[in-house]
Amino acid sequence: MNPIVFVEALQKEIQSTQYGRHPAELYDPIQYIMSLGGKRMRPLLTLMGAYLFTDEWEKAIKPAISVEVFHNFTLMHDDIMDQAPLRRGQPTVHEKWNHNIAILSGDVMLVNAYELLLDITPDKLRHVLARFNRTAAEVCEGQQLDMNFETRWDVTEAEYVEMIKLKTSVLLGYALELGGIIAGADAESTNHLREGGINIGIGFQLKDDLLDVYGDPAKFGKQVGGDIIANKKTFLLIEALEKAGGTLLDELNGWLSCREFDKAEKVRAVTEIYDKLNIRQVTEQRISDYFAKGLSNFEQVQATPERKEMLLSFTRQLIEREN
Amino acid sequence: MNPIVFVEALQKEIQSTQYGRHPAELYDPIQYIMSLGGKRMRPLLTLMGAYLFTDEWEKAIKPAISVEVFHNFTLMHDDIMDQAPLRRGQPTVHEKWNHNIAILSGDVMLVNAYELLLDITPDKLRHVLARFNRTAAEVCEGQQLDMNFETRWDVTEAEYVEMIKLKTSVLLGYALELGGIIAGADAESTNHLREGGINIGIGFQLKDDLLDVYGDPAKFGKQVGGDIIANKKTFLLIEALEKAGGTLLDELNGWLSCREFDKAEKVRAVTEIYDKLNIRQVTEQRISDYFAKGLSNFEQVQATPERKEMLLSFTRQLIEREN
């Protein structure tokens, strides 16, 4: 089985999904944000989770789209909260329409995500809904923690990892688990799928933080050092603030409080502080720990090696990515 | 059976419901808005709907709270959109906390509303969810139409009634229907409950519009004429704009476009225009038509007259209210 088959099935389903018609101001933004693209990683995980146990992976398509609709609902509302002008290079919904429309379209998207779950057979529906409710609440909790952290300078490493776990990783775990549940997998396997998705997700987010500083500029795609310039509270910065002392801490705090600076100079100087504190090695170790835990979770899933190959190969791509 | 028993059971359940704990910024606003009170009309309708068919109305308590949580979620988000400073005489969530918290707390409230529905037995869950999804989407559609109408002066009577039906009445219909479904009522009866709730709801909203102009100041509680002062597009104004011609239309448009005026004089003058156009009689007729339709729906519900008495007496109170 080639994952391209899944991607194409998902694209087709997304294009043909009707979210509602009238009034247009409510439903056009949903079509808009869903058409902006993205890697469709979450629904792909759901199909891969189902394929581990069954050839009838098509039974998981509408629930897979539900995950993608939920994800895009969170993007629509997060973009309001972050006052983001662009999403995937296009105007955000609150910019293209207005704030009120972005709030209300997002609300009805969340309802649409629940509606797409009704495709699930009645014997599994309650279980899936309980898992989805928990996950959706956790994603909101993660977003709230992220906002709380913006005004705090004493965020610990553990708090930061908990935040990214809630804000982004639990949804990856749920996406995988969902596929397993629909395919009729045993409870132990679906738990391992969820935990595996969460661990890979945390590793993925920490790698995001790492690449922003230590990525290869030729491969990274974005400007290296963007997080440093913006004082973004990443794993690296939190770790550095925890480890640094004396003049090194003064120097780091100096850069954090400095309002006018040469961007390249700040990136170079803060990276040097990170280097002196071994932040790169510490972060790489944590990333590889989470990836190893995730792969070990996947090992314990009761499916054949042939069935697992697609998920494992996809996971390896996530692990090895450099952009 | 005394409805006070239901009200007290609901209050107790609302007080003991845990929506979540951490982070506090996410969950405190839910406790706050749920504690502001209100008539608890919607969950009461759910319990009354269940009591029509069963003594085990307590099975409907958590789903009834789900309706109240959903209703308060819409209030939290509507208050942001309407920039309302007060809700039930207390600061709105976006005023007491901030906009972002009101968006995100509202989101997690909607998830909580779904979670409370999981109390329903698996054999009825799918049906209830399908009805709730449709209703929730319609409520959003109604709110969007209401916002669209703010900048339109050609809203027809039919469009206005459709808007209030979606924005407020379908939720009353769903609340009643929900009770019936949980109690195991036949499909025809639950449909009549829903339609009855919708018709009474429309009558209720039109009476709101009427009382604002023709209410007894001693009984009304609010300032009579508030809608006229604010140029609010009520059924009466839309009807007047449709019926008026010649100098009467000029006079009405004059008051609508006038930026500086004596409030009492505007109220008196616009009321006089309404009087000349027979708006009061037309509106009263429409209200009594909707109430009659609603009562006729309830007549067709397959339950004993004894069981129906509470719902009918509650409906009569709604019909006869003067504030």
From TrEMBL, chains A, B:
Gene3D superfamilies cross-referenced by the UniProt entry: Farnesyl Diphosphate Synthase (1.10.600.10)
The organism's place on the tree of life at top rank: Bacteria
Needed co-factor(s): Mg(2+)
Signal peptide stretch: none
The protein's name in its UniProt record: Isoprenyl synthetase
Keywords of the record: Magnesium, Metal-binding, Transferase
Keyword Iron on entry: no
Entry similarity comment: Belongs to the FPP/GGPP synthase family.
GO molecular function: metal ion binding; prenyltransferase activity
UniProt-listed InterPro entries: Isoprenoid_synthase_dom_sf, Polyprenyl_synt, Polyprenyl_synt_CS
Pfam family, one: polyprenyl_synt
Biological processes per GO annotation: isoprenoid biosynthetic process
